[in-house]
């Protein structure tokens, strides 16, 4: 009859062992936390969904949002809870439908179409004067069906990074960049001429500058200037020309583009000094700076003799949830507290995104040439289409690019993809 | 003392237990205490359920309490006493969600159809409000002449340009005399009680409906401290279920387009992309079974799914068992160390390692080509990608089999092994003829479960290859796609999330896996093995 | 190459003697006294095991080595990481413990709380049910066993929305088990409380019924028999299933990412994914360091349980 004790001892041992690990791990943290172990659920969560203002964002922006939101909470004497969420868009739509979502959510402007078709966000009522403070592309991007749905705080677009130790001269055209890059590879100083993420799945976003410079477009615009889902550019003659150019740069052509370069490794390859050029956005800057070689940033040039490259501009914005429990505070926070130069400055300082506020663009861009390049590129870019039909485009178009870079027939691939997308949109 | 007991002759287990004395009381007390706690807990939940009108949950709660009391307060149903705890959890947390998934499969629930028709109308009209041109943006103080939660409310407004003060009620806007204005806001007014920001927020559901009618439209609250005058060109006619745009005169009526309804103008254009939830019967199943794209890809993907799941089980089990047998010799020094290292792949969360592995397979920059000196485009070639998936899954899965087999080996009586050795059986022979079958008997159900798990192993496919590589003519079905990764792409891909369709697929896959597993069971006769 | 250094041999023998029914032959194959094997025979009987072991270890460990190398690499990027660490900086580990907005110790604690709680419930419910399936004959027994397996086959990933709605409602009735609470998350994982029934049942079947019967004669109630006689006999498989349950929970990501939103209630899986999701190439080092620390509890648990698992070497002999 000693056995039960033994089993219990084993289980207790497991518990002890694991809590001991936990205790050990705690040492770097505040002293009050370990005691929460048995009842973490009750005591560990000071503010749940019932805070007076709940905001969803991601890991990169949470500190910045928290700072502004805490100030807002103090002013109004309310509790504020800022949460970092993964897969924010779909989690938000599901939670909002269930009445269990946040009051404010941060996201990219191209979510708007999907959020609106799910009735998940409310429009904002900013006066024309207030809107005039933001850059044109930011306002254009956050306006949908003639209503403003998001308060923009950041603009992002693709730029061209160059390792000046390898290529001192800024290229005037894409062709110059490819030639210079190939020369560096031929000299054995780099492994890759030009880092543009393709991967096995393709990447339509990063290919967009090349595609547009060669004449391609995704959606045309209707009379009101909105994207028109019935006018699909993929499969049209210009897109076939663009596809041929991309094929010529691919694995069976000049090998400038390769499926081995993907979104997972392109930035670190550049930072490791393995290539002279990188096509990426502001998010790459941290790594590039740390890398320790000279670099320069410029807007992506176009092909020689063709149209300028038009990368997509992505605008980061604050949205007000339609079924939040604290809609009054949500509107107040977004329209009056975030919509101030001070709050925008905090967002810029702490979240480190090129700002959308024009005054801030000018003051911050004046002393920072890198930021100036990001802003120039974004302000000249086309907002990414926010219409829900865009969901039908990126995946097949990306896969088409991957196939073309891998050596598939560019014309047939592009035509087939155009048909696939048209069929999906129609269904 | 156990040893001496074993010599007793076999007895009928159903014989009534002999009466015993003193322990009964403590057991009884414990029982009463536990059952009392259950009932007490249930009672504490009752008021909330009643006040929120959650009848379904109330019934469920009562059923659970009755089941617990009936099982443990009586002497009947001995097996039930052992089965109830796990079964309750299983039914409420696995079976019930599965059943509600089946219900969702009969609807068109998904992106664009998450709301009810009523909510959709409210959302469309609400989103169409625009500020009246050149109208002021008022500084707002919310006040009440009655209750702070239910009203009647009044907006005390200050025009920031000329500091004119107004009061707005449901009857309209008029000038307000004798109010104290400080910093552009009304801070005191006779006959009105002012609301704090928190109170304004709490009254949001009532205030959201509150508007002050004006000639140009209506004044609405905007946040806590502002109000604006605006109007919507849209009007909803509930009887006719139409929405009219009063500025253009276009009438939008409900029409079916695809699997959902929209408000559509006579020329066929939609007022909004927002539709609403509706029952569609078996249409999702019909679509899954008849879609030409699905039927075109199905056979190839199904075959690979079966091959993938089978090989995953066979490879991990073989490697795991062989290693377990190899390490199961006490003469091997450092046995403990070997075992500890061999389970390492199992210790790191799988999704993390799959992400790492996916970088290993990169053609130019990956570790695999680097270490082996090969130049294979692992993830770009369908066959190579399949091999990569299998090797990765072997790495992830063999420690599980190793642990299970190590455990199972212990159950093999030593004398059988000894007998085999004495008969002069070679190591391999005894492994094949004695160890393997015995281990298989214990682990057969686990192998079936592992097969089923891999049959629907979305993670490894999604995180390693995303189903790729794809051929240019078919971006829907990739070279390593298994049924679940393929159908999830269809259900959550190009047309947004389609939960109704996804749920029908879940049910179909469930049936398919179940049938296969049941056949395998027949085959292994694992059930027959236990009397 | 003697067996005297085998730490398990000494520990498990007494246990085996307590539990082994009399009359069974000594089940252990462990030679009681050290002896030496000739070189060739050693290779044939023991040496090859080391060869196989080393090959297997190499296969098992190289991705882990890479993870270690990434964790020690202060640059923390995919490309700058090699199999053999080029630097040994603890910067990533320090960063893990020094960033208040990413409270790694808290995540670790949450994870362990969840793992221990769910493992306990799973073992308890599974052992109870397995005993019923093994010992009692009742209507619907075979159907129950089969449907248990079938229910587990339901593709959970597609039921996530239903669970989400269920817990939204539950949270409104009892806030402490709603979304965004550890208790709610623990509860949802307890849905698989019967996950280990099959494994444990197999071992119950191996415990001779004569034990129960004798105890019944002795006047013990069924609960006493279960808790005091049967359960201790199956310690090895409890250890195995405990480990399996623990690992199953520690890597759970899908539901955690939907259920746990506040930084303070996150588990390691969600928290770490947030790190890599935000910036995949930049945060690899941090991510790797966190992953290694996640593996640590499992390794320690296995270390601790190993003697129970292998202890069955002798205890399991009861079947004979």
UniProtKB/TrEMBL annotation, chain C:
For this UniProt record, give its keywords in alphabetical order, as a comma-separated list: Cell membrane, Membrane, Sugar transport, Transmembrane, Transmembrane helix, Transport
According to the UniProt record, where is the region Disordered?
A: 1-30
A GO cellular component annotated for this chain's UniProt record is: plasma membrane
Q: Name one GO biological process term.
A: maltodextrin transmembrane transport
How this chain sits in the membrane, per its record, is:
Multi-pass membrane protein
- Its predominant location is membrane
Q: What are the TM regions of this chain, as residue ranges? A: 51-72, 107-133, 145-167, 182-204, 225-250, 284-305
Polar residues composition bias: which ranges?
A: 1-20
Pfam families from the UniProt entry:
BPD_transp_1
Give the family per the record: Belongs to the binding-protein-dependent transport system permease family. MalFG subfamily.
* Entry protein name: Maltodextrin ABC transporter, permease protein MdxG
Species this chain originates from? uncultured Frankineae bacterium
